[in-house]
Amino acid sequence: MAQTRTEQSSNSKMRGRGWHGDPEGHANAGRKGGSKVSEDRAHMAEIGKKGGAKVSQDRSHMAEIGRKGGEKVSLDRSHMAEIGKKGGESR
Fold first, then answer.
1. Is the pLDDT of residue 10 over 90?
2. Rounded to a whole number, what is the distance in angstroms from the first to the last CA of the chain?
3. What's the pLDDT score for residue 23?
4. Second label for 66, Cα 20 to 30 Å away, from 12, 19, 22, 44?
């Protein structure tokens, strides 16, 4: 038997995250004060700073990130040659 919109709405409040057949509620997800959260640059910057501060406390994680970045950069032979030339010229 099909549910009415009121029944669907009350059922969706009982369940967790995700789509529950409520297009209006779905459209408002991720909004703060009626505007998209992603449009509030200061708010997004604050979230980013908090995340970066939290991640940077884990030194082994940061070392792994640096190691992966170094491996990726070292694959670019022309870039590495340029670095080597600059290093040789500075002596």
1. no
2. 82
3. 72
4. 44
